[in-house]
Amino acid sequence: MHEYTSSARVWGLSCPGFPEEVSRARRWTRDILRGSPLAEDAELIVSELSANAILHTASGQTSGSFHLALAVSPQVIALSVTDEGGTGTAPKVEHQDQEAEHGRGLGMISAIAHRVVVHDSHGGYTVTAELFTAGSAGGQPC
């Protein structure tokens, strides 16, 4: 393979900030990752990140939207959701007690994913969860 050629494939999807779009994001993820042993984990992560964008940011307000990116390579599946901000604080893992009804989503994602990164993104935030494929431990660097 040529040194400037990548075997990664990248997909993107923009969704209006309506609750029913969470199921669309899940289905989109499931369709792209059909046959992958990580498809169910990826679907759960996208569902939680999409719901968080709608519930906790300007993405869920009138004319709001959120954006998904899915990158697949032989070493990693990277799932990103970008929201429209409006919260003033970055998403973070919160440790809730057993009775809490909210605030467990990013903790759950952190338990499933091998790495979770939050970036400022043009007034909003992008949360990226990475799932390493079975052969990626000690794999070749990019």
TrEMBL record:
<feature type="domain" description="Histidine kinase/HSP90-like ATPase">
    <location>
        <begin position="19"/>
        <end position="129"/>
    </location>
</feature>
<dbReference type="InterPro" id="IPR050267">
    <property type="entry name" value="Anti-sigma-factor_SerPK"/>
</dbReference>
<keyword id="KW-0418">Kinase</keyword>
<dbReference type="InterPro" id="IPR003594">
    <property type="entry name" value="HATPase_dom"/>
</dbReference>
<dbReference type="Pfam" id="PF13581">
    <property type="entry name" value="HATPase_c_2"/>
</dbReference>
<keyword id="KW-0723">Serine/threonine-protein kinase</keyword>
<dbReference type="InterPro" id="IPR036890">
    <property type="entry name" value="HATPase_C_sf"/>
</dbReference>
<keyword id="KW-0808">Transferase</keyword>
<protein>
    <submittedName>
        <fullName>Regulatory protein</fullName>
    </submittedName>
</protein>
